[in-house]
């Protein structure tokens, strides 16, 4: 892996973590990366095209993973170069 490919992935993870609309979920099947999802409280905004960045509040107030609704896609942040969109059935 090149330094450039690692930097790109780190940048994506950093930007997702700064936006409270995105939450890190359980590890992927291979146990190396995490899935990112849209928090259920922000789902309506995304459906209606509101993609404004919400600043992350105190992480101690982060919602339970139980309150996060499954969505049809989640981004796999595993360390391989395969960034496919995962489909949930």
Automatic annotation (TrEMBL):
<dbReference type="GO" id="GO:0030154">
    <property type="term" value="P:cell differentiation"/>
</dbReference>
<dbReference type="InterPro" id="IPR030456">
    <property type="entry name" value="TF_fork_head_CS_2"/>
</dbReference>
<dbReference type="GO" id="GO:0009653">
    <property type="term" value="P:anatomical structure morphogenesis"/>
</dbReference>
<dbReference type="GO" id="GO:0000981">
    <property type="term" value="F:DNA-binding transcription factor activity, RNA polymerase II-specific"/>
</dbReference>
<protein>
    <recommendedName>
        <fullName>Fork-head domain-containing protein</fullName>
    </recommendedName>
</protein>
<dbReference type="InterPro" id="IPR050211">
    <property type="entry name" value="FOX_domain-containing"/>
</dbReference>
<dbReference type="GO" id="GO:0000978">
    <property type="term" value="F:RNA polymerase II cis-regulatory region sequence-specific DNA binding"/>
</dbReference>
<feature type="DNA-binding region" description="Fork-head">
    <location>
        <begin position="1"/>
        <end position="56"/>
    </location>
</feature>
<dbReference type="InterPro" id="IPR036388">
    <property type="entry name" value="WH-like_DNA-bd_sf"/>
</dbReference>
<keyword id="KW-0238">DNA-binding</keyword>
<dbReference type="InterPro" id="IPR036390">
    <property type="entry name" value="WH_DNA-bd_sf"/>
</dbReference>
<keyword id="KW-0539">Nucleus</keyword>
<dbReference type="Pfam" id="PF00250">
    <property type="entry name" value="Forkhead"/>
</dbReference>
<dbReference type="GO" id="GO:0005634">
    <property type="term" value="C:nucleus"/>
</dbReference>
<feature type="domain" description="Fork-head">
    <location>
        <begin position="1"/>
        <end position="56"/>
    </location>
</feature>
<dbReference type="InterPro" id="IPR001766">
    <property type="entry name" value="Fork_head_dom"/>
</dbReference>
């Amino acid at each position: 892996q090149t330094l450039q490919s690692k930097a790109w992935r780190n940048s994506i993870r950093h930007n997702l973590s700064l936006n409270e609309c995105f939450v890190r979920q359980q590890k992927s099947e291979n146990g190396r990366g995490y899935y990112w999802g849209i928090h259920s409280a922000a789902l309506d905004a995304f459906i209606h095209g509101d993609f404004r960045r919400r600043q992350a509040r105190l992480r101690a107030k982060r919602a339970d993973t139980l309150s996060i609704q499954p969505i049809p896609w989640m981004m796999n942040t595993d360390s391989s170069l395969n960034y496919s969109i995962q489909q949930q059935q």
